[in-house]
Amino acid sequence: MKQVIGLFEEGKVQKLFGMFVGSDMSFKDDYSYLNENFEDYKKLENELPKSSILAYMESLTPCCLAPMISHDIFSKEVIPNPGFYEDGIFIFLTDFLYYFKNYEIGIPYEYENFLKTKIHSK
């Protein structure tokens, strides 16, 4: 997870995750330091059930969509509606939700702790 300032709102400090190296949505040039390795997410073992995390994340509405096509970095299958979700101080790609659904990866522990307050308060 990387800290960014002003990605969607000037001066706002946010935490970006799930921007995988090799994806169509990955940053290039000056922002390439924000990209993360997919393999690192395979090592994350979350306490919350995947079904609860998925239900919560699927209830979010993307804050912006990109006018492009994104592809799975492994199968090259088209990933629909590339864009970003913003959840409090956290930002992640719509692609991340696709990968979370279709591969055995976890979410960053800091985001999981944030979700624990959201999921248990419902």
What's the arrangement of secondary structure elements?
Blueprint: E1 2-5, E2 13-17, H1 38-42, H2 50-58, E3 64-65, E4 70-71, E5 78-79, E6 83-87, E7 90-93, H3 94-102, H4 109-120
Parallel strand pairs: 2-7
Antiparallel strand pairs: 1-2, 3-6, 4-5, 6-7
Key traits:
two-stranded antiparallel ribbon; single chain; 29% helix; 122 residues; alpha+beta; five-stranded mixed β-sheet; 7 strands; 20% strand; 4 helices
* Lateral arrangement of strands in the main beta sheet: 1-2-7-6-3
What class, by secondary structure content? Answer: alpha+beta
Number of beta strands: 7
Uncertain runs are none
The H-and-E topology, N to C, reads as EEHHEEEEEHH
Descriptive overview:
The structure is a single chain. The chain has 122 residues and is α+β, with helices and mostly antiparallel strands. The protein has helices at residues 38-42, 50-58, 94-102, 109-120, and strands spanning 2-5, 13-17, 64-65, 70-71, 78-79, 83-87, 90-93. The strands form two sheets. A five-stranded mixed beta sheet has the order 1-2-7-6-3. Strand 6 and strand 7 (90-93) form a beta hairpin. The radius of gyration is 14 Å and the shape is globular.
Task: Please give a quick description of this structure.
The chain contains 4 helices and 7 strands. With about 120 residues, the chain is of the alpha+beta class.
